[in-house]
Design a protein that fits this description.
Layout lengths: L13 H14 L3 H25 L8 H10 L4
């Protein structure tokens, strides 16, 4: 761990904790490394999603009801 690491208490379901411990042992990595990588990946996905929303902000919107009507009109529902 780096000097800039911060300690935090996280409570895992017992089955999830067991799976993480097994993965850590199998991959010769610490549980903290595995969790940090998973959190980084989740945050990166969130950032990608937000960027996609920004790119599509000018697209027209359609109500749910209009979408259903369109699907029905085209024989897809």
């Amino acid at each position: 761990m780096s000097k800039t690491s911060k300690r935090s208490t996280v409570y895992f379901d017992s089955e999830l904790h067991a799976a993480l411990r097994l993965k850590a042992a199998h991959t010769h990595r610490s549980l903290s490394d595995i969790v940090n990588d998973a959190v980084r990946e989740a945050l990166a996905e969130d950032q990608e999603d937000l960027a996609a929303f920004d790119e599509r902000v000018s697209e027209p919107t359609m109500s749910y009801e209009a979408l259903l009507d369109d699907l029905k009109a085209h024989g897809k529902l």
